[in-house]
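Entry type: protein chain
Record version: 2
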Amino acid sequence: MEPVAFGVLGPVVAERGGGVLALKGPRHRAVLARLIVARRRVVPVARLVEDLWEEPPPGAVGAVQTFVAALRRVLEPDRPPRAPARLLVTEGPGYALRADPDAVDAWRFEAAVGAAPALPPARAATRLQEALGLWRGPAYGEFEQENWCRAERSRLSELRLRAEEQRAEARLALGRAAEAVPDLDAHVVDHPWREDAWGLLALALYRAGRQGDALAVLRRARAALVGRLGVDPGPRLRRLEADILTQDPCLDLAAEPAATGAARLWTQAAAAYDRNVAAGARARLESTVGLIRNLAVTGGGGLEAARQHRMAAITSTEEFGDPELTARVIGAYDVPAIWTRGDDPQLAGQVVAAAERTIAALPDGGSQDAARCRLLATIAMEMRGTRSPRGPRAARDAEEIARRLDDPALLAFALNGVFMQSCTRAGLAPQRDAIGAELIALAARHGLMTFEVLGHLIRLQARSALADFPAADVHAAAADRLAERHELPLVGVFTRWYGALRLADSGQRSQAEAAYRAAAARLDGAGMPGLRHGLMPLALLCCRLADGPPSALRAADGVAPSADWGPYRPWAEPFALLRTGRRADARAALRALPEPPADLMYEVLCCLQAAVALELGDRAVLRRVRSRLLPAAGELAGGGSGLVTLGPVDRYLTAITAALD
């Protein structure tokens, strides 16, 4: 027997094989309609009674059972006596209609409207034309006064209006502007508050060669909006009017630049998202964090804005009390990071605390391993530059889970965390080089473009530390090529500084200092305070020390105490004191220095400390610094940063050994 099809886009009907089934009275059709509104979910009998009668009569429950029995005889006439129903089923306290997804015209219509934006214009236009043809009148027509279908009728009506506008958009994209005008004109007459429709009509008229009519339509729109709603047209209609007046080429479909088309697509998609996804929906939070993630790699303003909004998204998610959702939102921010000092320590602490709370709240077992891995990688990333053992431990655990799950994207994120925790002592450039090599291979194999760039930058740093500049040059060039292709402007910040390092290492001090000043200008507005603060004066100090024996006094001549030394001020202070002859104060400042932070400047700061200790003959400090620097023997001091250099570490070790002997 052929399946039953249901129609609610007009009077409620049921059909089989093209023939309309006799559903008896209005109460029978009401029960059927109410079950269709429930979309295959169970509706309790008590709820059906409430919906069918304002004041239920005695025996209302029995009446509902009678209606259901009659519907079953119509819908499944060949069902044997006492055999369970397959379509209108009894379940728990009530009934459900287990219709197939394509058995109800409203469900087919909704699916078509949802799929249309992803289709080519020709297919979208055809699909939407067919979908709109399903309407025979107002949805659930005979039940328009019933509360139980009011929300569904409103939702379907909104989808119908949007489908008409989508059909017009498809026709415009196909160059069929004149064909779109009549339907749009009727549409705005019936629905004058829909600004998108007015804009489409004006654009269709303009493309049909009717510029005057297009402007007249926009004047009608203004009058309708002001007269009915008391509001002026929004920015999109105002911009469209200005574009028509100036005959902007972007309005011409044939001449529409790719960039303009992309901008228009973004505007339309964002507007559709706003219309169709509820303001408080959880999906909005996950979409928002994805947008924040993409924003972070677009440049300085985007990176700064991403930091501002990231914690707000996490806080909003935690309010749902759903740790799995919170884990997804926190872990989705897998923005590759190359600098091992954070930009906002306070924010980092808040993110780590939220990640730790979420890990503790996740259910036990392996089902949440991927979420747990992302949280651990996030902790490793955000604890960069600290001396807490939690950071390295989180990095190791994240890597172990990612390798076990064999998930490339997960492993790339975890390896970024491992890299961030790879500066706990000197001499770890070979390990970082291996991380970079694996990231490049992994990312290239699986299309993880931003992590491929990260791998090249990591290897640039590591090969610089190992004084292998030919290899470092190759990785700098590869990073620049990928950055240009994929619009990643922040990559150039690091490769420009690397170019200055190359000049400094070759002994071209004046050219290096000029290159550093030019590179520093790229940092203004780059949104990376953790990198920018103190870097320029540190680079100039390193230039003075890199081209000869480690003489603190000679380097001190270039130290400006008033400069923005940022986090490097404690290591610059002894030089400034030596410059003014305050040797006792310089010695006190030297001995007060802590072990350098666990970041890419570790060897640089150790060597700065060694230079002052050599000047003052402080044997205790020299012994301490030598033990810290020995693992980096054979490397270039500071080269691992990819930004600055103090020359070979061996030069400092040799000077320290001579002083101690």
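Comment: Confidence is low (pLDDT under 50) at residues 255-260.
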